[in-house]
Amino acid sequence: MKICRLLVIASALCFSMLCSCTSSQISYDRYSLTENISSSSFIVKRDLNVELNEVLNDGGIVLKTSNVSLQSANNHRWASSLKEQLRVILNDALNKTNVREDLSLNVYVSKFYGTTDGHCIIDMTVDSFKKEKALYTKNYSFNRLQNKDGYQSLVDTLKIGFESLSEEIANDLSMIK
Question: Are 72 and 62 in contact, with CB atoms under 8 Å apart?
Fold first, then answer.
């Protein structure tokens, strides 16, 4: 009888522990970088190609967790293709600066992530061509500490960084005649 009672108590304890494990909240937040962009910038009239480091193509926000590890979030994800969002932001900056539309641009984004110590890092290379003749190649980087903890702050800081780099790229390219 005592063994049955202990078994019932142990079973109830196990059941309550399992239930508490499954009740933790999971965030299914989706993040957009293009909410404040004019709809006209979504129509890209120039030859503007953006490529991402493979780990950035997974759809999740990426964190650098060690010197050799990058981890894509399972539940904190981009609202749409990161590649397309970055393309729209860059196109918006190019339009505002009146960069020539006959230039072809290849942009390779190698870093677009946060780190566990709160830094936001962006690194990319821009190649510009006109009629297949190389005109311009330059590397652009951004590294800034987040204001607060959390994915929202990470996304906000990455957005500020990419918009700033896009303006710098547009200003550099506006000098090409």
Answer: yes
- Distance between CA atoms of 3 and 8, rounded to whole angstroms? 9
pLDDT score recorded for residue 177? 73
What is each CA distance from 132 to 102, 129, 149, 174, 175, in whole angstroms? 11, 5, 45, 18, 19
69-78 and 104-115 strand pairing: unpaired
Q: What is the pTM of this model?
A: 0.82
Whole-number average pLDDT of the chain:
87
- Beta strands 119-130; 133-145: pairing state: antiparallel
Give pLDDT, residue 26. Answer: 65
Give me the CATH topology for the region 29-174: Rossmann fold (3.40.50)
Average pLDDT over residues 25-39: 82
